[in-house]
């Protein structure tokens, strides 16, 4: 649904959906693109797909859609690169004419340039990282060899301790460029230096040790300023001393398996210093080159960011325009496009104006044709909503979209939903907390509406005005219950009751005497804390729940009458509405009257006994349960009406529907001959009904189910409204427990620390349980009462939404 943007709109109608019309548009191909674009600006026409039999690749504008899709991909790539670089696209409101082909070339050039810069940057960065690693290897490995030259005999002793001799090796020892030589022995050691991932270093050492049977000497060094590799992570410098070609080959394979990077190294200290100097110089040059490339990349991204929003919006619009053009059919002359779609009746002038403007701006020699078509097809449902009514409409639509011009429950839900929520949540302290949170969202409405919020926050922000109404009604019902975080206050006047003696708090109502006028608004604070508080509030809230439930169910049945009257369905009026209203009020309407009479008269009559024996022994005397004269006779009449209403609801409607069907077909059996055009028109008008078969058994069974459902539902739905009493009682008792057992208990210790801890736990319990969990619970129960108990009395909800082609909706769509 949503808001209508633009002028010349009629006042908002929410009870019935907007009158819709099926229109046909015919316009020349040369003005087609501009015409659809202008209609997208109007946003009040839902096009029908006239090419359903064609695949997307067979349609006229498939090539243009593919081109727009490729440009959208490039724009997504640009956006990813800008976000990585910390750039935000600038908001642009300037309207600039852009050519599709020119933009495609421009985006292609920018993408190629950016890809090349990124590739060069990655290559340079990789070389820079390798040089940094090489420098670390030179520094750390140099420390090993400095120690080795100062005490070369330690290495030799370790090999001697392992009894390694030249004769025990599989192949002769080979001298390499990097060797450690001990003049006292003929054992010659080669070495391999490099970097290994830190988390794999222990496993790397164990595997080498086992593969060479311990005939190696390994040294590791933890790098103080570790080099972070995107794949391997932090690394350690290692040096492996080995003896023999076979051992060398095994070590090289293990290095490859562990992703270890090997670097050349010289044992000569002079050459080491020279290599470090050379590597440092190359690092400085690479750093300068990388910085220049980064500046060039940032400059390119800044250029893209200045026009990104404008390009992105334009590509989205173009893609949606071509998608819409693919829904139109080509005229037989191949020179015109024909389109059909639904639009509100009030939008006729706006659409015609858009067509005329498109024909003028495109210099077309032929104007567009606009005509309204007659159809039996069910139109889409369109309600004009605003930011206040939208969340309530969404609540109703979640159950089912209203059938075209069916009575919309949203009109009543705006009041009844927050009110029933408040009946269960009633506490004016909690209501104020809810109100403050909602006012915060409303105050930051402009900021949050343009931001991407989380899922939960998005739902709360979208329903901020619904929550506002819930908070206001919660304050109202909280004042009626006289509860502020479960604490009563004498807000409007002193209590009407005074204590008879000192033990009044522990006594029943006998311990209270009426000393002042009746408390003017809500529950008298004297009830709170007395032994009779729970029985009194239980009785009050239970009876109030029944009254509210019966009133809302009667409202639902009345709306079914307005639906039947609006659609001219006399059968539903006389054989559905009348028996339903009689049945419901003969039983539960009568119970509501008894509750009101008992409240007004102060009678001690037992209403449970009265209602039960109204069915079991309707002719017995009522005795002390009689509330007024003639009550017994009235009960007999109401019971008889309820019994009559059941067959009244069940039997006549199927037979009348059968008679209607027979009369309709009897009128079509003998008709004068018509021309071909008249025959086609008759077939199109009655195609939906002319060949339907009337299955009386199916209709009768459906009516039987509907009757049983209503009769049993009248009882179960009335009982379901008792959840108002149960949830209200639970909320009140939880608030009382938190107040007495947390706040007041901590206050009684006369200890500042315990008091602070108690207040903290009380706040957490109040927010977590009462303001979050109880709010959600009451919301869900109010939702169920509206969906099941209220809407099933009249609401079919089998329509479909009006989704116009509108550019204002493009920004919310994900490509």
Automatic annotation (TrEMBL):
Residues 93-127 form a coiled coil. InterPro entries: V-ATPase_116kDa_su, V-type_ATPase_116kDa_su_euka. Keywords: Coiled coil, Hydrogen ion transport, Ion transport, Membrane, Transmembrane, Transmembrane helix, Transport. The keyword Transmembrane applies. Essential component of the vacuolar proton pump (V-ATPase), a multimeric enzyme that catalyzes the translocation of protons across the membranes. Required for assembly and activity of the V-ATPase. Pfam families: V_ATPase_I (PF01496). Its main location: membrane. GO terms for biological process: vacuolar acidification. The keyword Cytoplasm does not apply. It is found in: Membrane. Belongs to the V-ATPase 116 kDa subunit family. This is V-type proton ATPase subunit a. The chain crosses the membrane at residues 419-442, 462-481, 544-562, 574-597, 633-651, 752-773. One of its GO terms (cellular component) is proton-transporting V-type ATPase, V0 domain. PANTHER family: V-TYPE PROTON ATPASE SUBUNIT A3 (PTHR11629:SF112), VACUOLAR PROTON ATPASES (PTHR11629). GO terms for molecular function: ATPase binding; proton-transporting ATPase activity, rotational mechanism. It is a multi-pass membrane protein.
């Amino acid at each position: 649904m949503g808001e209508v943007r633009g002028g010349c709109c009629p006042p908002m109608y929410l009870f019935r959906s907007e009158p819709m019309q099926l229109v046909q548009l015919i316009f020349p191909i040369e003005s087609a693109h501009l015409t659809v674009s202008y209609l997208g600006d109007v946003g009040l026409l839902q096009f029908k797909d006239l090419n359903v039999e064609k695949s997307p690749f067979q349609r006229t504008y498939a090539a243009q859609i593919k081109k727009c899709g490729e440009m959208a991909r490039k724009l997504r790539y640009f956006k990813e690169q800008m976000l990585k670089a910390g750039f935000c696209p600038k908001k642009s409101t300037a309207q600039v004419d852009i050519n599709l082909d020119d933009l495609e070339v421009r985006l292609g050039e920018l993408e190629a340039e950016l890809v090349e810069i990124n590739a060069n940057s990655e290559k340079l960065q990789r070389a820079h990282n390798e040089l940094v690693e090489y420098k670390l290897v030179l520094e750390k490995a140099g420390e090993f060899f400095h120690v080795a030259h100062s005490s070369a005999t330690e290495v030799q002793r370790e090999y001697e301790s392992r009894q390694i001799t030249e004769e025990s090796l599989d192949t002769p020892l080979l001298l390499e460029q990097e060797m450690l030589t001990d003049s006292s022995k003929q054992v010659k050691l080669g070495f391999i230096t490099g970097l290994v991932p830190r988390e794999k270093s222990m496993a790397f050492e164990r595997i080498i040790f086992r593969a060479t049977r311990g005939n190696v000497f390994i040294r590791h060094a933890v790098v103080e300023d570790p080099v972070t590799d995107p794949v391997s992570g932090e690394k350690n410098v290692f040096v492996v001393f080995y003896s023999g070609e076979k051992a060398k080959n095994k070590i090289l394979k293990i290095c490859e398996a562990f992703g270890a990077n090997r670097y050349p190294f010289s044992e000569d200290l002079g050459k080491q210093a020279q290599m470090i100097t050379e590597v440092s110089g190359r690092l400085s040059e690479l750093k300068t080159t990388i910085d220049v490339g980064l500046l060039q990349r940032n400059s390119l991204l800044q250029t893209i960011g200045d026009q990104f929003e404008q390009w992105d919006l334009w590509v989205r619009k173009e893609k949606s325009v071509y998608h819409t053009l693919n829904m139109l059919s080509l005229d037989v002359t191949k020179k015109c496009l024909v389109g059909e779609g639904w639009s509100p009746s009030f939008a006729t002038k706006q659409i015609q104006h858009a067509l005329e403007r498109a024909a003028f701006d495109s210099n077309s020699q032929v104007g567009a044709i606009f005509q309204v078509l007659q159809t039996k097809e069910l139109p889409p449902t369109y309600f004009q909503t605003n930011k206040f009514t939208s969340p309530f409409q969404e609540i109703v639509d979640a159950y089912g979209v209203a059938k075209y011009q069916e009575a919309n429950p949203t009109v009543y839900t705006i009041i009844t939903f927050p009110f029933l929520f408040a009946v269960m949540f009633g506490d004016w302290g909690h209501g104020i907390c809810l109100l403050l949170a909602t006012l915060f969202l409303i105050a930051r409405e402009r900021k949050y509406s343009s931001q991407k919020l989380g899922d939960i926050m998005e739902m709360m922000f979208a329903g901020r005005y619904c929550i506002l109404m819930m908070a206001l009604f919660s304050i109202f019902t909280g004042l009626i219950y006289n509860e502020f975080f479960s604490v009563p206050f004498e807000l409007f006047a002193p209590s009407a009751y005074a204590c008879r003696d000192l033990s009044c708090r522990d006594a029943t109502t006998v311990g209270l005497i009426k000393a002042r006028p009746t408390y003017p608004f809500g529950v008298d604070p004297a009830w709170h804390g007395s032994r009779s508080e729970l029985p009194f509030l239980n009785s009050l809230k239970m009876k109030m729940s029944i009254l509210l439930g019966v009133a809302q169910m009667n409202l639902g049945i009345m709306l079914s009458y307005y639906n039947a009257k609006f659609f001219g369905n006399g059968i539903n009026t006389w054989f559905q509405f009348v028996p339903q209203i009689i049945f419901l009020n003969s039983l539960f309407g009568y119970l509501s009257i008894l509750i009101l009479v008992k409240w007004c008269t102060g009678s001690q009559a037992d209403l449970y006994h009265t209602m039960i024996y109204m069915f079991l022994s309707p002719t017995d005397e009522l005795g002390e349960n009689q509330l007024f004269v003639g009550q017994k006779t009235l009960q007999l009449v109401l019971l008889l009406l309820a019994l009559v209403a059941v067959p009244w609801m069940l039997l006549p409607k199927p037979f009348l529907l059968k008679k209607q069907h027979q009369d309709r077909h009897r009128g079509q059996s003998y008709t004068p001959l018509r021309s071909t055009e008249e025959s086609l028109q008759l077939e199109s008008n009655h195609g939906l009904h002319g060949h339907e078969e009337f299955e009386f058994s199916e209709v009768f069974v459906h009516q039987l189910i509907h009757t049983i459902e209503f009769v049993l539902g009248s009882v179960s739905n009335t009982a379901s409204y008792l959840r108002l009493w149960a949830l209200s009682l639970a909320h009140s008792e939880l608030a009382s427990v938190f107040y007495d057992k947390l706040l007041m208990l901590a206050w009684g210790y006369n200890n500042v620390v315990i008091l602070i801890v108690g207040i903290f736990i009380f706040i957490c319990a109040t927010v977590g349980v009462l303001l979050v969990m109880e709010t959600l619970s009451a919301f869900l129960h109010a939702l169920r009462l509206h969906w099941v108990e209220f809407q099933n009395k009249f609401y079919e909800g089998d329509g479909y939404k009006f989704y116009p082609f509108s550019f204002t909706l493009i920004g919310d769509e994900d490509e």
